[in-house]
Design a protein that fits this description.
The complex is a heterodimer. Chain A is 43% helix and 23% strand. By secondary structure, chain A is of the alpha+beta class. In chain A, the strands form 5 sheets. In chain A, strands 1, 2, 3, 4, 5, 6 and 7 form a 7-stranded antiparallel β-sheet that branches. Chain A has a 5-stranded antiparallel β-sheet with strand order 9-8-12-11-10, with helices on both faces. Chain A is rod-shaped and about 210 Å long. The longest helix of chain B has 20 residues. In chain B, strand 6, helix 7 and strand 7 form a beta-alpha-beta unit. Chain B is of the alpha/beta class. Classes of the chains: A alpha+beta, B alpha/beta. Chains A and B meet through helix 3, helix 5 and helix 6 of A and helix 8 and helix 13 of B.
Chain lengths: 786, 330
């Protein structure tokens, strides 16, 4: 959860939480400690209060008790007469305002054998003291509590308080003292002396007790009856136990039980009055068995402490709030620049460097960071400016390089066959450039009518220097070859020329050979180049001897030895650069000379164009997907046979056409020229044109499966009394002679297309031959001229 | 059979309070009633029936006299101060046997509430523990069951006359006190003794079930107007049933009467009393049995009275008791 929050939140959260915890711990300790002290104080003052109150009650009760006790003592002394006793009783009531009535009640027949009851009773009625005898069949005092209880218990007893029957609402209690007569050694119970005593003073004592605002005192009798309580309705109607029952308050019942058992205590409870939490302190009134209780309202007594604690809490909360503001302010002062910096960084990432940073005046870490940002902004701007410049420079160079590369490619001969009228050999080459400008090259040119020079080379290094160097070497070779026709001489001269000014220490490997097309002799020099392969007509393939000299440009005085091989008709020399053998597959394996030899052996029967194209395919599939590291250059020369004698050549014409129907016109023009030149009958020339037109039409329309440019070679020979026409093309194998002669009598619409041309050819020629040779269709026709 | 059925129907209608033909047709008859003690929940049914107008509904313009120690209900009947009164069954039989010609027209309380109570702290846990103890007894009819009880368990006790209060018991002046379950028992509890500190002897649990309050009238009164008697019983029973179903309302009514009579009132005490009255009155388990006096109960009480010499001969049950719940005029 915290992970995703900002610094400000974390600071606020952790610091505030910690402070709040510390504060609460201190507060709680303070609260509990002060509370304990206060409760202790309340308890001790509660004890004092109950003690003082109980003492007050005791004092009154005891002094009231003295009067009947002394009368009982008097009666026990024995010697008195009735009159004296009545006088004493009367004066007792008269002289003691607290006593409302008094009697000396005797046991049945104890005072007078003839009367069952004897109980003279003096009592107040208004201001006077009245007299009557108690006891008759409807008031059998022997069985009343005031008589019976002290009798049975054998000791003086304060009765349960009661309301005076005669007069109003005066709460009374009767103090009954038993008196005895000594009969021999035994004490005989004689009767009870009573004093009815008003408890009005009790109410005064107890109602004067005020504890805080709602605290009060109360008194319960021995039976638990409420004798004094601020809630008047409870008095004499309820006992503390019935209140507990009504309130379903077992705690209060327990307190009541403790009270009537004469125990004292200080215990928490709930006020009968307000229902609020309070403490009840209680103590017995020993002489009567009653119990005094005092209710100490908790909330009121604790009010000061609670207010104090509220103030402390309030101060704490205010402190925390202040702390919150301070932390938020500090956090803000830290995070605001940080947020701006973060946003700015995103802008920088988008490329916007023209941002304005707010001034951070502080010298702290944030200020430092802001300064670093401003510095970074400057540095980045400078860097980007430089980078832009560098990039544009690089782009210019690259574009120049591309141009250089194009120029390099353009200086290589690329039209095949380059010498269509030379039948003694075939030559084909390809250069597959690598991405970078490389230094491979090849070239071929006739030195004279019979000697053709062909050369393949590979300049060390790459890029523009290599390209320039290659161009220079190629030019040098060609120009040197005009002055000397010996390969070793050529290279020697070139080497001297190159080495002398070779400050950049570049070099080039070269294989240079000169083929004499009459003899099939090949003189060659291998200046540090890969050994070419010779494909013999009998399908045997072998490498030429290794280098016969150093690479050009290394030693100014390098020695180059000339070697010679003799090619038989059908033999081929296959040359290549290290782009072939060092092509790599994804496992960094080289294509290798072994694989090269093997592949070439398989392709030996094909035309040289096919060999080179297939090789290229092979290399590409070998290095499947890997970028081409070097130029791949291949050059192949196949020797057929020596050229024909000059005489024949006189009546010979070669027409080279492209595979387009528009070329037919060119053919027709050329044939017409040839006919004029040789004085041939125009009919025959027309025939020849017609036949050729038919043949070319067939080849161009149906022979090629691709859209590439192909060459169709037509040899025209005037031999004997006939005109020999030879059509050579590299189209698909097609023997027109195998086509069924057309049914010329059939209706036009059901005749097969094409067949008609062959029919025509047969009609105009006296000899028609077809052969497939070296991947070429060769159609030979003879048109009789005489 | 037909009579029984009709009576049952009548009773049902009465209990449902649907039977008010009398009220609608005839003017109210004046009558008076005295309970055998001061107003308290012991008589809640009558006060409630009065306050809820049940007596009027049954055609009675009733006056409830204030009972108490100074107004013995039997005297009020005898002196024609009251037409109806509640008496204990034992009192009823005794007075009838003495020639008073009383009729029990409904036995309301089915179970004896009189009991003896002792503190466990004085070592009394079962009947034999009472031997040689001081026992507080009320007088007259309140002594019949205790004495039978002592006889039954062969106990010798020192009898102390007991007043209306239980202070003597609470102050340990006696070991065993007489108590009414609905009254003194609760007073003792609410004087600080817990029930588990006390041993209670319910007479009805010791084969001495003396049903207590019943409604009585003089034979002459009954003879003169049995319909009035029947109406009084019906309204009273309805009052009781209503009081049991509406405790708070009943207590409010009782407390009102207590205040009027200047009797110290304690709602919790009255509540206890009303609940115990419910137990005692519905001891038969069914509302329909309220008011019935069973011959067994009658003879148990009468035999005991006779053996104590309080009566010479047992009055005829059928003359003594008229079941007004099902009484038909013919």
């Amino acid at each position: 959860m915290m992970k995703n929050r900002g610094i400000a939140f974390k600071l606020v959260f952790f610091i505030l939480t910690s402070c709040a915890v510390i504060f609460l711990v201190i507060f709680a300790y303070n609260y509990l400690f002060s509370r304990r002290i206060i409760i202790k104080n309340i308890e001790s003052s509660a004890k004092n209060l109950t003690l003082v109150t109980v003492n007050k009650i005791e004092t009154v009760l005891c002094s009231a008790a003295e009067v009947p006790e002394s009368l009982a003592y008097f009666l026990e002394e024995g010697s008195y007469d009735t009159e004296e006793m009545l006088k004493l009783l009367k004066s007792m009531v008269e002289n003691n305002p607290a006593i409302y009535g008094s009697t000396a009640a005797f046991e049945p027949n104890a005072f007078d054998k003839d009367s069952l009851y004897f109980a003279p009773y003096f009592y107040r009625s208004g201001d006077r003291v009245e007299f009557k005898y108690l006891g008759n069949d409807s008031y059998r005092y022997f069985y009343l509590d005031w008589y019976q209880i002290p009798r049975e218990l054998g000791r003086p007893v304060w009765s349960e308080p009661y309301y005076d029957v005669g007069g109003g609402d005066i709460l009374m209690s009767t103090y009954s003292v038993p008196f005895y007569a000594d009969i021999g050694k035994e004490k005989k119970f004689m009767g009870i002396v009573t004093a009815d005593i008003s408890l009005a003073w009790l109410e005064d004592i107890i109602s004067s007790i005020k504890i805080a605002r709602s605290g009060y005192g109360f008194l319960v009798s021995k039976n638990g009856t409420i004798v004094s309580h601020p809630q008047k309705g409870l008095i004499m109607n309820e006992t503390i136990f019935s209140i507990a029952e009504a309130r379903d308050d077992p705690r209060l019942r327990e307190i009541g039980r403790e009270m009537i058992k004469g125990k004292s205590g200080f215990t928490p409870s709930r006020s009968i009055f307000t229902g609020k939490e309070c403490w009840i302190a209680y103590a017995p009134v020993p002489s009567s068995g009653w119990s005094f209780g005092a209710v100490f309202p908790k909330d009121e007594l604790m009010a000061d402490m609670i207010r104090f604690n509220r103030i402390v809490l309030g101060l704490g909360a205010a402190g925390l709030l202040f702390l919150l503001i301070v932390i938020v302010w500090i956090a803000h002062s830290i995070t605001r620049p940080l947020r701006i910096l973060a946003k700015t960084t995103r802008d920088i990432a988008k490329g916007n460097l023209d941002f304005e940073l707010p001034a951070v005046r502080s010298k702290d870490e944030v200020g430092e960071l802001a300064n670093s940002f401003i510095y970074m902004k400057g540095a980045l701007k400078r860097y980007i400016k430089e980078l832009t410049e560098a990039t544009s420079a690089k782009e210019r160079i690259e574009s120049e390089l591309r141009i250089a590369h194009d120029i390099q490619m353009n200086i290589l001969p690329k039209v095949f066959p380059p010498f269509p009228d030379r039948r003694e050999f075939d030559i084909y080459a390809t250069l597959e450039p690598a991405k970078e400008v490389g230094g491979d090259f090849y070239d071929f040119f006739f030195i004279d009518d019979d000697n053709i020079c062909f050369v393949i080379g590979d300049v060390s290094g790459k890029g523009v220097p290599a390209a320039l160097f290659m161009a220079m070497v190629k030019t040098l070779i060609k120009s040197t070859a005009r002055t000397t026709s010996s390969p070793d001489e050529i290279l020697k001269t070139v080497n001297e020329e190159v080495s002398g000014k070779n400050d950049s220490c570049m070099f080039v490997t070269v294989f240079l050979a000169i083929l004499n097309v009459r003899t099939g002799h090949v003189d060659y020099v291998n200046a540090g180049h890969n050994p070419p392969l010779v494909i013999h007509a009998g399908k045997e393939v072998s490498f030429l001897k290794d280098a016969t000299g150093p690479a050009i440009g290394i030693f100014e005085n390098g020695v180059f030895e000339k070697e010679r091989i003799v090619l038989r008709p059908g033999d081929t020399i296959y040359m290549y650069t290290d782009g072939v053998t060092e092509a790599m597959d994804s496992g960094h394996h080289l294509f290798s000379e072994e694989r090269l030899k093997e592949t070439i052996s398989k392709l030996a029967g094909s035309s040289i164009r096919e060999i080179i194209d297939q090789m290229l395919e092979e290399i590409k599939s070998f290095s499947h997907g890997m970028p081409q590291a070097d130029d791949i250059t291949m050059l192949a020369v196949r020797y057929f046979s020596a050229a024909k004698p000059d005489r024949a050549r006189a009546a010979h014409r070669t027409i080279v056409l492209k595979n387009s129907l528009s070329e037919i016109k060119k053919m027709a023009t050329s044939i017409a020229e040839f006919g004029k030149e040789k004085n041939l009958p125009p009919d025959r020339i027309n025939d020849a044109t017609l036949v050729l037109e038919e043949a070319i039409n067939n080849v161009v329309s149906y022979g090629y499966g691709d859209a590439k440019e192909h060459t169709i070679i037509i040899d025209v020979d005037l031999a004997g009394d006939g005109l020999s026409l030879r059509v050579q093309d590299d189209a698909r194998p097609f023997n027109p002679l195998e086509v069924t002669p057309p049914d010329i009598h059939a209706p036009l619409e059901s005749r097969r297309v094409g067949g008609l041309g062959i029919h025509l050819m047969r009609n105009f020629t006296d000899n028609l031959e077809y052969k497939r040779e070296d991947g070429k269709n060769i159609l030979t026709m003879r048109i009789p001229c005489r | 059979m037909a009579i029984r059925k009709a009576a049952a129907f009548f009773m049902l209608m009465t209990l449902l309070g649907a039977f008010n033909i009398t009220a609608a047709e005839t003017p109210l008859k004046e009558a008076s009633f005295i309970p055998q003690w001061v107003p308290q929940a012991q008589f809640a049914g009558y006060y409630v029936a009065y306050e809820k107008g049940f007596y009027k509904k049954y055609g009675i313009d009733l006056t409830i006299l204030e009972g108490g120690p100074d107004s013995p209900p039997y005297d009020a009947l005898k002196d024609h101060k009251a037409d109806f009164a509640t008496l204990w069954l034992s009192t009823g039989i005794r007075e009838d046997a003495a020639g008073a010609k009383l009729i029990n027209i409904a036995q309301i309380v089915q179970r004896s509430a009189l009991m003896l109570i002792a503190k466990k702290s004085s070592g009394i846990k079962e009947p034999k523990d009472i031997d040689n103890k001081k026992v507080g007894l009320w007088d007259e009819i309140f002594q019949i069951q205790p004495r039978a009880f002592f006889k039954k368990y062969g106990l010798k006790v020192k009898i102390i006359p007991q007043s209306y209060s239980v202070s003597l018991f609470l102050r340990d002046g006696v070991d065993v006190a007489s108590a009414m379950w609905y009254n003194e028992y609760h007073t003792i509890i609410n004087s600080g003794y817990d029930p588990d500190e006390l041993t209670a002897f319910f007479f009805h649990e010791h084969g001495l079930n003396f049903p207590e309050e019943g409604i009585y009238t003089l034979a002459d009164t009954f003879k003169k107007d049995p319909r009035l008697c029947r109406a009084f019983v019906s309204a009273s029973i309805e009052g009781w049933i209503y009081a049991f179903g509406h405790e708070d309302e009943a207590l409010d009514i009782v407390l009102k009467y207590m205040a009027k009579a200047h009797i110290p009132a304690n709602r919790m005490h009255q509540k206890w009393m009303l609940e115990r009255m419910k137990d005692l009155i519905l001891a038969g388990g069914e509302k329909s049995s309220v008011g019935r006096l069973s011959p067994e109960d009658y003879h148990r009480v009468a035999e005991e009275l006779k053996s104590n010499g309080m009566i010479d001969k047992i009055p005829d049950f059928n003359l003594f008791y008229k079941d007004c719940r099902i009484y038909d005029e013919e």
